[in-house]
Amino acid sequence: MIDQAVVDLSRWQFALTAMYHFLFVPLTLGLAFMLAIMESVYVMTGRQVWKDMTKFWGALFGINFALGVATGITMEFQFGMNWAYYSHYVGDVFGAPLAIEGLMAFFLEATLVGLFFFGWDRMSRRAHLAVTWFMALGTNFSALWILIANGWMQNPVGSEFNIETMRMEITDFAAVIFNPIAQAKFVHTVAAGYVTGAVFVLAISAWFLLNRRNVGFAKRSMTVAAAFGLAGALSVVVLGDESGYALTDNQKMKLAALEAMWETHEAPAPLTLVGFPDVENRTTHFAIDMPWALGLIATRSFDREVEGILPLVAHAEERIESGVIAWDAMMRVREDADDLEARATFEEHKFDMGYALLLTRYMEDPREATEEDIRRAAFDTVPNVPVMFWSFRVMAGLGFYFIALFATAFVLVTMRKHETRWFLKLALVSLPLPWIAAELGWLLAEYGRQPWIVEGSLPTFLGVSSLNATQIWMTIAGFTLLYGVLAVIEVMLMIHYIRKGPYPELEGGGETRPARPVTHGGARAVPAE
Amino acid sequence: MEIPISYEILRLMWWALIGVLLIGFAITDGFDLGAAALLPFVGQTDIERRVVINTMGPTWEGNQVWFILGGGAIFAAWPLVYAVSFSALYLAMFVVLAALILRPVGFKYRSKRQDPRWRTSWDWALFLGGFVPALLFGVAVGNVLVGLPFTLDADLRATWTGGFFDLLNPFALLCGLLSVSMLLLHGATWLSMKVERGPVRDRARALGPLFALASIVLFGLGGMWVAFGDLGFAQVSEIVADGPSNPLRTETVAEAGAWMNNYANQPWTILAPVLGFAGAAAAIIGIRRDSEAIAFLGSKLSVVGIIATAGLSMFPFILPSSADPNSSLTVWNSSSSHTTLFIMLIMTAIFLPIILAYTSWAFKVMWGRVTSEDVSAGGGDYY
Lengths: 529, 383
What we know:
The complex is a heterodimer. Chain A is mainly alpha-helical. Chain A has one domain. Chain A has helices spanning 4-45, 48-82, 84-118, 125-154, 173-177, 180-210, 215-238, 249-258, 293-299, 309-335, 340-349, 353-359, 371-379, 385-414, 421-429, 433-447, 469-500, 504-507; strands at 159-162, 167-170, 271-278, 283-290, 452-454, 458-459. In chain A, the strands form three sheets. A two-stranded antiparallel ribbon of chain A has the order 1-2. In chain A, α2 packs across α7 (215-238). The radius of gyration of chain A is 26 Å and the shape is globular. In chain A, 53% of the residues are buried. Chain B has one domain: Formate dehydrogenase/DMSO reductase domain (Formate dehydrogenase/DMSO reductase fold, Up-down Bundle), CATH 1.20.1630. Chain B has 13 helices and six strands. In chain B, α1 packs antiparallel against α6, α1 (7-42) packs across α7 (170-194) and α3 (60-77) packs across α4 (79-88). Chain B is globular. At the A-B interface, α2, α3, β2 and α17 of A face α3, α4, α5, β2 and α12 of B.
């Protein structure tokens, strides 16, 4: 049987490296388009300050991008290193979008990012602008293919298990690409990236304005951030990925868990605003409900029900029983490849076989499972309810906060009241919030998918490599050390560059001198004002 | 849907395509690895080192994608190979990743501060980012030629029976040194082409022939070892080229000298090792005659020849198992499904030419020698 320590450590390592990687990704997604917008204004108007903006925000983009690339290398190889059985089991389906991401997206963005930085004097303005736009498109295509891969793990469409090769294989590639969960995730994720980029530019511009530095530069940057951020913040909430939650058993479970909804409510179900989920007694205390809201959001209808956790567990029990039949048939085919009756039985029950694999956590052979074992395995399909419940509330709350923040920013910049100090302070302290929201979003998606690595097909604990705990401890320590040092360096460089500002030579705030709030008139000397 | 290309042909094409991607990586990012490993030696002053870094600055990131794409394509086309090799080489892979992670940050962050200690630290980080992968890629290929100690059970779950230090066997180390000298040669010919005339270029040109000679000697030694040593595996069961991908249906034995069989059966394959030697020799001649184009072409062809030799010697094996030869992975028993191979071929046929087009354009835009004047005057546009 599989060593539980290896499973837990592999999960920790993946979670740590993936969440660390995603500190850099959303800023890349958002800033890339903002750079393209700023440079477009420069090319259209010829005003130098817009080129300065592209270069200054571009330098910060570059510092961030370097770590995004560095940590992305780990992601591409980690499946094979730590999740070898998963890689074998689903590589036929899951590998394709990853490879296409390289072909279509990453090659494009990585080649053009070099020209973005080095090509200013080597090509025409329009050619450079095209480079910037295609680089931005590349980053977003990259997100598309990664989320198609991830969406398949949430909803493994277009594929089925092949008993000859002991793995999932593609049956309908179009279904994998147009997987509704993947599409919803893509829009939601890139919009979250736009919000991150906009909050970043807004907060740093606010810091400049609070210190009365680079005023013209900062006002223009703030205007771009306000408009871009408002569009992003509206998209991220309106096009949230709840729409996919009615699709699969696991997605239904995820929805029920993040709402801490134990029993099915008659349609349309209410949305719980706050409350205290109690796992032991399977109830939620002090719940404040908003009538109808959940039913409308999740099913887009008045009459369809949102299923509760306990009925979904009962349904999982049935699927486990059906899965055991599939397992038994597979074993008979293994003994006698010509057993046609066994093959027919397998075909009939194969879509439940993953549920039988849930039992292998407790026993070698699922056929020996008692009713008690089946009940226990069915309860494993419930993710951690309080974590889901609170993560969702914080993430969604932040989503609405960003709408309010950018709506205010939009009104202020339209009224030319950029220097409203209370708002500038608010914008500055909002800087870390989009990262918190984005990480919680991934926690909901991935932790909420447990116990599955691929929904309904393969439990997470079966996906690991045949490693020992020592090996994984060594790499966790190594990654933590390396990533920790790099994080410190990156933040240090970011702060260094921000303090230096876009016009160090005019301000005299050079490399070696400590940064200080510059309040004299010279600080406002922005060229081409 | 009826797939217009047979499973057998698609498997062959994907075997070749992975070779193309890995060779693409080795001839583009290979000179970046080599030049980064040479950085602390060919550049003595800060400005000299900046010149070296800026020969790679604009294009190394795109070059590295050949590696990422190679990994992704192995995952998509040969999932079992991806699963077994990366988990079997777990700690070695970690060291490679850690070294490669130093490169993007090293290139980007080095010039952001004036402090000499800061810059020297990044120079050595970049050295490690070039040298360590160059060495370990060779060690990995060497171990694949020896056979990796893994077994597959009935669920096709791989179990690894070796330790990290088993990877450091003499043949694998020989391959590691070959890989280092071949990529250092490639880095040296790149620098002699891209760096202004002066001390940096002279140092690169002085070192180039040494690495070329080392490549020739080590490649020759490796060849003798393969021919007369105890390496090699052979399939004894009948070849089923279009069967389901399940390695347990193949019977294989270890057979000393079997890696030479393809050269006897298909004499044209001898071109690969010939290219490996001839390319390195051409690089020496190119450097001597002051013809950088010939030198760079020579080192490039040498890389192509040496990597192709490893692939062709083992065909149809991809990942032989020394612990249980019957678990060995071959072209015929470890690919993706017929459908996936076809879809991925279409995608590659569409996107690879586009990639080659904009990559060539990027190299063209950045064409020309990097000079210390440009670098010092270029302000923030240079690393």
